[in-house]
Specification:
about 475 residues, Aspartate Aminotransferase, domain 1, Ornithine Decarboxylase, Chain A, domain 4, 3 domains, 15 helices, globular, binds pyridoxal-5'-phosphate
Length: about 475
Amino acid sequence: MNQNTAPFWDALLAYASREVLPFHTPGHKLKAQAFTNLRSVLGEGLFSLDPSDEIENAELNHDFEQALHLAEQLAAELFGARQSLFLVNGTTGGIHYLLTPTTGTVLIPRFSHQAVYSAMVLAQGQAAYLPCAYDPQWLIPLPPSVTAVQQALEELQPQALVITHPTYYGSVSALDEVGRLTEKHGVLLFVDEAHGGHFHFSKDLPAPALSCGADAVVQSTHKTLGSLTQTSMLHSRNDSWFSKVVQAQRVLQTTSPSLIFYAVLDEVRRELALQGPALVNRALELAATCTSSLAAIKGVEVLPKHLQADPTKIVFSLRQLGLTGIEVERILRVDYNIQVELSDYYNVLALISIGDTASSITSLVQAVQDLAARRGHLGGTPLPRHTMDFPDLPPAALSLREGFFREKEEIPLHCAVGRISGAFLTPYPPGVPVIVPGEEFTADVVEHLLWCAEIGWPIRGLLAGQKVLALKDNGGRCRTVR
Ligand SMILES: Cc1ncc(COP(=O)(O)O)c(C=O)c1O
């Protein structure tokens, strides 16, 4: 196929250039006459490219369905898939389409994005969890080891395994070995590659999941590759599962997808086919400069190489100077007008992408240099070492889906031991749920959550007055409540 073409982009531009008089949706009638501010900031061009898909007309060469199919085939060819889908509800949507058709056990690392959990609320399949391990020095969640995967595959004989590749912090599992194991056990391997779309374009990055035997992957093209926010791609190598995914997409996706989103995905794919390796290698060079410059600053530590498989995710810490990652994020924003991707107790993560320049890197390095020098003068003492004892996974009384939809009530957290949770309780960051709907509050879970609340660690799902949602009928089980 000719990768230097963008059939959907071209079809949309061709339609706009005809200036057809629209007596159809959308209500802005491709001009947004009534909205002066919108027109002046976004430009009329944006509206002219935003017809609904009702205008399909093969005779006039506006067969958008055909153009989309071609554009998706080009994407599949580029990324080494058999089929691809353009997604307008992000990787979240793609993960939902992948997992909704499951009917058996789906093995998921506890450190999975909420999209994986919400997919398992929709699915008939049942989630089983691989517990999360943490690096003790950096307190970042680690991807599951091959041994952990192997044991779980043997014990649970799941229908599918979901792996996040890379994690938010840029770490990866030995995915080729995991792929060999899933193949041996006849288990579907689905990969949340939200943060790894760029892997395809450089040998200096971890291998992309499709090349490690994944049946299907979902990539947030918007996160690391530069399309518009909300636009992602699903790539598949498994024809029979793909036909289920397409059915799921039909029921779960809007019937009015943005044609601009599709066109942008198509045009981004065209550029990447031509320039992807050069753009990504340039980003890698910038990331290397940034990392070595940050590491050279007194008091700044950078995540060691064995944990940082993706060098474009620069994790650094000023803990030697007494600053938490959360404080560094706030100071960079307030004093230097710089916003990083995330922070936690020790760390800050700065994401470098094909959109960066030498000057953006210099600005970040200078800001950190200045901050470190200021802090050094004030004689910052190192942060106290945090050791975290994460509780074991609590027992599941009900499936995630059942727990999620049962009637709930608010109860104080300290009275929750023995009750069944109706919600996710997730200290954030890093976003690993301590308990999920359908699981029973153990004393360890309650104590850990109380401790997080006491030290001011934000807990998603914890309600005002330190209350939590528990099932009203406790899942049909009668338990003594402390
Ligand atoms: C690991 C991971 N998976 C999935 C998603 C969902 O991606 P999207 O925002 O494209 O829906 C995210 C978003 O942050 C993520 O970090």
